[in-house]
């Protein structure tokens, strides 16, 4: 993997990168690596996979197959939104509804690293199954970016957490090779490349979302009930921040798995604690929490606790990166 894309990192000078030059260079590398073979890409609808898809479609017209795996670990209504955004483009778009499959694999799994590896391996297995239905698919493409590489220790650095598209890959991936054209880029550069490729702002400016999805925002065991509660709380939080006009690079809710005594309709309730997270960052190697206005926090808490009956308490995380990470797991 590194031998193919090392030359791309050499284009960086004092952390400044010419996106136009990078695009031209990486397209040449992709063509040389893939030749006349077909390529399979896991399309999540996030910034990285979307830019990867647009770049590969330009480099390999007619050779790209995009598989969207609906893991059941996505945000509220996100699966349908992704399909609507990509279905009309010049891509072979395939949607696989695999919620029950992923939940079964994650049953009783509580360790965050284990979750990442379980989800990563299951992604690959789904890809392999779908690839068998396609002719001449030999390469697997991924939207791996440089912070993923650094945090996974794949560049000789210390492991912080495994990413499903780096440290979480099984050894026997079942493909001839990996195509990772964003391997040398930080997130702002990925967005700049997406803009240059003509992707809509709704995709290019989309906030980061972990590869293992909500499984790492659901502390402890992952269940459909807990995921549905988290989805509802998260949708409320994101909608209120956007309505208020808060400037943050990433904001989301976390299902802590903890319960707290509360009062609902005058009666004792024993519901879940939801944590909220909003950060600012340039490259996501470091991050600062966003000091949200109290009136906004109050409105969010009132909405979540009244509209999501299973929640009795909401807290706000003000930990930076470091010492924490952006995600809780």
Description:
- The structure is a single chain.
- By secondary structure, the chain is an alpha/beta fold.
- It is 39% helix and 19% strand.
- It is built from eleven helices and nine strands.
- The chain has helices at 2-9, 19-34, 47-59, 78-86, 99-106, 112-131, 146-151, 187-196, 201-204, 224-244, 294-307, and strands at 38-42, 64-70, 92-97, 137-141, 177-179, 250-264, 267-280, 288-289, 311-316.
- β4, α7 and β5 (177-179) form a beta-alpha-beta unit.
- α2 crosses α3 (47-59), α3 crosses α8 (187-196) and α10 (224-244) runs antiparallel to α11 (294-307).
- It is globular, with a radius of gyration of 20 Å.
- It starts with a helix and ends in a 13-residue tail after the last strand.
In short:
The chain has about 325 residues and is α/β, with parallel strands linked by helices. The chain has helices at about 1-10, 20-35, 45-60, 80-85, 100-105, 110-130, 145-150, 185-195, 200-205, 225-245, 295-305; strands spanning about 40, 65-70, 90-95, 135-140, 175-180, 250-265, 265-280, 290, 310-315. Helix 4 (about 80-85) links the parallel strand 2 (about 65-70) and strand 3.
Features:
4-stranded mixed β-sheet; globular; 39% helix; alpha/beta; 19% strand; 5-stranded parallel β-sheet; 329 residues
Reconstruct the topology from this structure.
Layout: H1 2-9, H2 19-34, E1 38-42, H3 47-59, E2 64-70, H4 78-86, E3 92-97, H5 99-106, H6 112-131, E4 137-141, H7 146-151, E5 177-179, H8 187-196, H9 201-204, H10 224-244, E6 250-264, E7 267-280, E8 288-289, H11 294-307, E9 311-316
Parallel strand pairs: 1-2, 1-4, 2-3, 4-5, 7-9
Antiparallel strand pairs: 6-7, 7-8
Helix pairs in contact: 2-3, 3-8, 10-11
